[in-house]
Amino acid sequence: MAKTQIKRGKQKWRNKPGELVYTGDISSEEVQVDVLLYSPETDEISFKKKIEEFKDYSGYRFIDVKGLNNKDEMQRIGAILGLDDLLLEDIMHMGERPRLELQKDYLFLIMKNLYLDKENIRIVQEQLSFVVKDRTIVIFRDSDSEVINYAKEKLKNSKHSLRRFGTDYALYYIMDLLVDNYFLIVSDVEEQIEQIEEAIISGEESMNLEEVYRIRKELLLLRASIWPLEDVIHGMIREEGLIENSTKEYLRDLKGNISQIMDYTSIYRESILGLFDIYLSNTSNKMNSIMQTLTVISIMFIPSTFLAGVYGMNFKEFPELGIKHAYPVFWIINIALMIFMYRYFKNKRWL
Amino acid sequence: MAKTQIKRGKQKWRNKPGELVYTGDISSEEVQVDVLLYSPETDEISFKKKIEEFKDYSGYRFIDVKGLNNKDEMQRIGAILGLDDLLLEDIMHMGERPRLELQKDYLFLIMKNLYLDKENIRIVQEQLSFVVKDRTIVIFRDSDSEVINYAKEKLKNSKHSLRRFGTDYALYYIMDLLVDNYFLIVSDVEEQIEQIEEAIISGEESMNLEEVYRIRKELLLLRASIWPLEDVIHGMIREEGLIENSTKEYLRDLKGNISQIMDYTSIYRESILGLFDIYLSNTSNKMNSIMQTLTVISIMFIPSTFLAGVYGMNFKEFPELGIKHAYPVFWIINIALMIFMYRYFKNKRWL
Amino acid sequence: MAKTQIKRGKQKWRNKPGELVYTGDISSEEVQVDVLLYSPETDEISFKKKIEEFKDYSGYRFIDVKGLNNKDEMQRIGAILGLDDLLLEDIMHMGERPRLELQKDYLFLIMKNLYLDKENIRIVQEQLSFVVKDRTIVIFRDSDSEVINYAKEKLKNSKHSLRRFGTDYALYYIMDLLVDNYFLIVSDVEEQIEQIEEAIISGEESMNLEEVYRIRKELLLLRASIWPLEDVIHGMIREEGLIENSTKEYLRDLKGNISQIMDYTSIYRESILGLFDIYLSNTSNKMNSIMQTLTVISIMFIPSTFLAGVYGMNFKEFPELGIKHAYPVFWIINIALMIFMYRYFKNKRWL
Amino acid sequence: MAKTQIKRGKQKWRNKPGELVYTGDISSEEVQVDVLLYSPETDEISFKKKIEEFKDYSGYRFIDVKGLNNKDEMQRIGAILGLDDLLLEDIMHMGERPRLELQKDYLFLIMKNLYLDKENIRIVQEQLSFVVKDRTIVIFRDSDSEVINYAKEKLKNSKHSLRRFGTDYALYYIMDLLVDNYFLIVSDVEEQIEQIEEAIISGEESMNLEEVYRIRKELLLLRASIWPLEDVIHGMIREEGLIENSTKEYLRDLKGNISQIMDYTSIYRESILGLFDIYLSNTSNKMNSIMQTLTVISIMFIPSTFLAGVYGMNFKEFPELGIKHAYPVFWIINIALMIFMYRYFKNKRWL
Amino acid sequence: MAKTQIKRGKQKWRNKPGELVYTGDISSEEVQVDVLLYSPETDEISFKKKIEEFKDYSGYRFIDVKGLNNKDEMQRIGAILGLDDLLLEDIMHMGERPRLELQKDYLFLIMKNLYLDKENIRIVQEQLSFVVKDRTIVIFRDSDSEVINYAKEKLKNSKHSLRRFGTDYALYYIMDLLVDNYFLIVSDVEEQIEQIEEAIISGEESMNLEEVYRIRKELLLLRASIWPLEDVIHGMIREEGLIENSTKEYLRDLKGNISQIMDYTSIYRESILGLFDIYLSNTSNKMNSIMQTLTVISIMFIPSTFLAGVYGMNFKEFPELGIKHAYPVFWIINIALMIFMYRYFKNKRWL
Ligand SMILES: [Mg+2]
Ligand SMILES: [Mg+2]
Ligand SMILES: [Mg+2]
Ligand SMILES: [Mg+2]
Ligand SMILES: [Mg+2]
Ligand SMILES: [Mg+2]
Ligand SMILES: [Mg+2]
Ligand SMILES: [Mg+2]
Ligand SMILES: [Mg+2]
Ligand SMILES: [Mg+2]
Ligand SMILES: [Mg+2]
Ligand SMILES: [Mg+2]
Ligand SMILES: [Mg+2]
Ligand SMILES: [Mg+2]
Ligand SMILES: [Mg+2]
Ligand SMILES: [Mg+2]
Ligand SMILES: [Mg+2]
Ligand SMILES: [Mg+2]
Ligand SMILES: [Mg+2]
Ligand SMILES: [Mg+2]
Ligand SMILES: [Mg+2]
Ligand SMILES: [Mg+2]
Ligand SMILES: [Mg+2]
Ligand SMILES: [Mg+2]
Ligand SMILES: [Mg+2]
Ligand SMILES: [Mg+2]
Ligand SMILES: [Mg+2]
Ligand SMILES: [Mg+2]
Ligand SMILES: [Mg+2]
Ligand SMILES: [Mg+2]
Ligand SMILES: [Mg+2]
């Protein structure tokens, strides 16, 4: 069965605040770090595998940390990057809500990647954490992420806009990719609603209630992932120091996309409810018309069956039984009765 | 089948931000430019076909660009007008949400034209983009637009108000035409609701569920197109520099119209839901009364049929069968029974 | 059939902004002007019929313009009063939304008069426009208005509060009369809901669905007319220059009335929905109990009818038929069976 | 029948603003005034019956005016207290909405007392008006009020907190008593919902729809009375001059109570809707199961009744009739058929 | 039966404001005080049992008061801690709403602990009150609280963060534990919804309406407990003086958790309503299909039963009865009729 998960990850309870516990489902404790060093001034880019190596570079530093299930390594990375335990805790806790935290010298962002697992017909949710501080962006994720790989690929291209701007633009760029993914979910929902629409309005097919429920849950999940982003982007636009004005221009554009997705979720929700109303009416109308036709037919035989019973009675003194042509008259009366009733019901639009 | 499209245009994904991709459905790559140069001081107006020619004119410049499916030409036009790639991307992306962007030296506006395609009974949605910068208005559209043609026709009339005011007024003038079109949709919805109302309340006709669904979607589409305009106009009224105070007066008037359309969409939505409630009740009441009448009739024959069966039994010792006039008495008893039951049910209001 | 109109008046489209088109349904082009000149200092009041005559008077000027269907006359009046075309357009357009416009030297207000046309059981909507500028109030209306006539009558009374205060108070006074009319609609709705309540809860009468729908539309219309007034009065209270502080006191009182009507519309809407729920339950319960009783009765005869059929069979070898007193035993068995079933169903509360 | 009144009192229309009309239902024109003079400095309290006597006292003045149905007396009292006609009009109009008015030198408050008339099972609504101005509180009410009597009793006790603080505290004290009364309504609603809950979930009793409707109306009335108080208390806390800081502390506490009642009304409303959903499902499930069982039983007899009819036919050539033991075989076949059908339906869970 | 209590505790009415009345259900009047004195500078911690002993200590003071049902002792404690009667009243009143009060020199907080009583399948609600003033935190509770015991246990550990920070951090730490408990309720609701989901969508099991109602009430209770906390934390973050900046960082994190729980309650509510819609459709579809099949079967026998009755009639002149092979022909006709009807209904998808 298709399943849309709105899970919060493993339960975290009674940890000390700031205690590091990974709550995702990746069991491997391997941590893989990619450091990309680049600068708008030069066409070169260098690749490092040790996180310490970012320190000496005076250009922009793009750090990709894959694998969060290793408390000691996370603490070591945190120490090198200057991140406190409360932050690391949220990075390792897979059930966080999308949110932005602005500090004096860095910015911390949690976002969700949503994509459609076509095989299992369910939405998969991935948590990504970002830290942006002076000339550096660090991305934390617990597994392979198509979106981050794509961004790294683009960064390798010396002509790409990613190479012209700073790490704030890199953050925007990934956010934009994530929101593009939301649009794919929107597209999928739209397609499914159109299919349901055609099925319902043509009246040929019945409504797949399970599918409808799944779409409603997809919309809820989409909404829960998208609506905190309005505050996030608002916060980034007001931020002074870490986000360049040129990047804010892009963020304003992204804000429009987010509003649009919010609009779509409302519209699709209303559409589904509207289709459900039609489906219920259709079902009830169809059922009613069947029951009605059947009942009318059964009614048409009731008087005749009674009459046949009457002439089957064994009274000694029963004059009609001896009347000539009584039997064909019985048929004529009954057929006339049925025709009359048929016409009467037809007239009253019960047939 | 009638169809109201809430489509977002072709899917745009994994483009570089600012990459120009046309997402509409016009395949021709022809770009047609109309430049109208006019000034309140003189009665003259001159028409040019090359976009470069607007530069030398010191009066007002009205530039109409039709056809967006040519990336190179768009880039050339953008360069001449001084528009950056992010703006051109939105202009070429047909699935934008209505919105206003205020920059230091220009204003960018996206709006939707909605009109009713009477033949296919569906709402057609057209995206229009506007750039207003010093003494210049540029309109971008991907196909023929009745509204823009109408405005250009009026501009040719030297006595028209468009000739007395600047390009900010021209923008308002077109916005007003677009909002007028929304009112036509409102009118259409109103008419349809009245027809449904008459059909439902007279009880003569059944509800066309498909039509109801279509109206609900029209209202959703109208709402999605109209409600971002409240922010748009609010932004234009607060703007300083590009919009004249006299034009702001007109915009305030337009804002009233928009609030009114919002009110109507709410009222019509509530009315449809109210009518749907009545329809469901009517259907159920009608069905119930049919079933009830029929069941009562069948009940009236049950005891009599049983009695006829009784007197059809073949017991050797069966005193009643030999009684004189037993047969007519049987009829009298049965007819009395039926009359009694008829009256009883009539009394209990089951008939 | 009763009908509540939520009409927007004739369609206005593709007029030049500021073009004067009357969109009401009064065909006469007569314009009737009443000028009342009065001053708190003196007990005198003078009546003029020409609008020009207000200019020379140094006291308060109350100008009543009846008839809007004459473009030339409206333009002449506008010129004399110093009103621009955009204002005149709104005055002549009968489908405006209630709203306030504050200008440097005048105030413009549109309000709706609602009253109940008892004969046709429908709400009638009248649009009134007001301009208040230095010592002058001008009222525009397209037909005879009971409210304005009443106010003029009061103004003739030298002891009336209208004579003690300025034109801002006169405006408040008329607004108060209009809001009083809204209360009459509220009263009417309340009465009707109480009647429905009694009918539904007593269970004696069925719900008049058409009436319920009409009340719901009345509430929608009332709400649409009343809720923009919160902004209107808020605007008037903040206004500086045209509205005296003493009048603002009255306006604050009026604001309370408007909040109260808003409260009532919510409460009545909820009440109707609640009654509708009960009605649906009642209908369904009543129907169910009928069907249940009838089915139980028919079940009670099924085994007996079968048994009668059995003893009507013509098997050669049929021992029971010859048994002594078999026939009365048949009756005893059947009556016992029926009593048992009756008790069983009674016990199970199916009867 | 139980009845919850949401009445607005007698209709007030076309009165001059500020014209005094009593709209309650007390016909007696007697006005009874109690003046209590007290001071925190002394233990003494003096009681007067004439309103003029408050003037000479330099301590706190608690004035209780009972009876509003005497225009002349009200005007006399108003003149002595320095209240304008607009205020007196609201005091005498029994359909006011709870609200606060802050003037330069006095505070005017309207509140509703709600209590449960256990005998007639309905909520009774009482309007109380308060004026607080320098060292004086005046209470206006049209009939005997338990709450005011209680407060006066307490005031007589020289040890009571009312004697330690000023008239602002006295106002708070009465407001608190009124809000306590709202909690009694909440308690009553809670108890009734619990009873309905038990009845519904046990499935033993049917839902009393009338009672549910009454509770819903009680909640609406409670909500309408309570929610304007949030603004009222907010206004009193911001007020400077009439309300002491120590009293504001108490008011903040009262605000918490009001928020709590708002919360309860939401929760109870949702609970009732949830119970109604269960009730509808239960009703429908019960009905369905009855109909199903009955239909299955009737189906079980249909083939047998047909067969009995077959062997009751009078064909001359009818071999089965002569077969030996045909009659007992008929019974065996029928009983087997019925057992089979019973098992089949049991298997399919239709029984 | 499972039961979720939204009780307000015993009714409090007509107490003097500030009068101390315990409204919980603990009858014992014992008050047990634990004073923990600790300081970040030293590793030591001392335990006292008398509340007076906190005064002399210059480090942090953690005071746990268990048992509120002793007015005199409460007044003594209040006097020692410098708490006024209004505060003590709220502490002893078990039906308070979660809220924060900020005073010049102290902070007062009421929160609810919610936990699941697995045995009785109901949510238990516990009220906790906190006072934080210079270097001191006081916790009031009427019974044993797992959360407070847990926090005290942690405090004894000299390496725990509680020992590094002040009493503001201790307050945050307990708030965090309480919110963790809310997440356990969320988890429980989630699990139950998943079970219902599987049962409903597989169609195997019927919906447990009582359980659904219980979940809806759990969500209401959760919502009522959690949503006032948004204001509480907002207030604490703005507070200046009592809450350290480092603690505010933690509070911001907690705010995110609260928003998340709010999101979950919305999502779960919508999910339940969606599942309920499916359940209703399923029930209705299943019922309809049973009724339909049964009715079709009974229809199939109606004509045959009539025909058998016809050939059981006793007319003297009845030619068919003598026809050769009339009886087997009767069977052939009837079987053919039944096959035809079966195919017809099959074709029309009624079977
Ligand atoms: Mg957008
Ligand atoms: Mg939006
Ligand atoms: Mg939007
Ligand atoms: Mg929408
Ligand atoms: Mg809907
Ligand atoms: Mg957009
Ligand atoms: Mg308007
Ligand atoms: Mg308007
Ligand atoms: Mg509006
Ligand atoms: Mg509205
Ligand atoms: Mg509405
Ligand atoms: Mg509705
Ligand atoms: Mg009021
Ligand atoms: Mg009011
Ligand atoms: Mg209100
Ligand atoms: Mg309200
Ligand atoms: Mg309400
Ligand atoms: Mg409702
Ligand atoms: Mg409702
Ligand atoms: Mg509280
Ligand atoms: Mg409270
Ligand atoms: Mg609240
Ligand atoms: Mg609360
Ligand atoms: Mg709630
Ligand atoms: Mg609900
Ligand atoms: Mg969060
Ligand atoms: Mg969170
Ligand atoms: Mg939230
Ligand atoms: Mg949410
Ligand atoms: Mg939601
Ligand atoms: Mg829903």
From TrEMBL, chains A, B, C, D, E:
Alphabetical keyword list: Cell membrane, Ion transport, Magnesium, Membrane, Transmembrane, Transmembrane helix, Transport
Q: Which GO terms describe its cellular component?
A: plasma membrane
Gene Ontology MF term list: cobalt ion binding; cobalt ion transmembrane transporter activity; magnesium ion binding; magnesium ion transmembrane transporter activity
Reaction catalysed by this enzyme:
Mg(2+)(in) = Mg(2+)(out)
Q: Please name the taxonomic classification of the source.
A: Bacteria, Bacillati, Bacillota, Tissierellia, Tissierellales
Q: Which InterPro entries does the entry link to? A: CorA_cytoplasmic_dom, CorA_TM1_TM2, Mg/Co-transport_prot_CorA, MgTranspt_CorA/ZnTranspt_ZntB
User: Pfam families attached here?
Assistant: CorA
Q: Which family does it belong to?
A: Belongs to the CorA metal ion transporter (MIT) (TC 1.A.35) family.
- Function (record text): Mediates influx of magnesium ions. Alternates between open and closed states. Activated by low cytoplasmic Mg(2+) levels. Inactive when cytoplasmic Mg(2+) levels are high.
Q: Which domain of life is it from?
A: Bacteria
Indicate what this protein is called per its UniProt record: Magnesium transport protein CorA
Q: Indicate how the chain sits in the lipid bilayer.
A: Multi-pass membrane protein
- Give its localization: Cell membrane; Membrane
The answer to keyword Electron transport applying to this record is no
Regions that span the bilayer: 294-313, 325-345
